[in-house]
Amino acid sequence: MRNKENIDLRAIWHPDLSGRRGPKYLQIIAAMAEDIASGDLPAGACLPPHRVLAWQLGLSPNTTSRAYAEGVKRALLRGEVGRGTFVRVPSP
């Protein structure tokens, strides 16, 4: 089932990486998982493009791409070619 009213957070979501340790891509995933659990990143939310998030955080686009790939691997995110990366709707 596709949610037609995806929430667009491309210009809003900015993960808080302060006080986190370890590789930056894992810091992004940890912040993302926390924000999903708290409801700050609701199911269906559209995340910023890899390059935009990298620019916001002062990181390489490779780092944010790796974070998003890890999010897909952990079933937190889903990517749609040409549309963006979205917070995955949990299975019932």
Automatic annotation (TrEMBL):
Gene3D superfamilies named among the record's database cross-references: Winged helix-like DNA-binding domain superfamily/Winged helix DNA-binding domain
Gene Ontology molecular function: DNA binding; DNA-binding transcription factor activity
SUPFAM superfamilies: Winged helix' DNA-binding domain
InterPro entries: HTH_trans_reg/aminotransferase, Tscrpt_reg_HTH_GntR, WH-like_DNA-bd_sf, WH_DNA-bd_sf
UniProt key word Iron: no
Coiled coil: none
Occurrences of domain HTH gntR-type (ranges): 22-90
Keyword Cell inner membrane found: no
Keyword tags: DNA-binding, Pyridoxal phosphate, Transcription, Transcription regulation
Name the UniProt record assigns to this protein: GntR family transcriptional regulator
Organism: Nguyenibacter vanlangensis
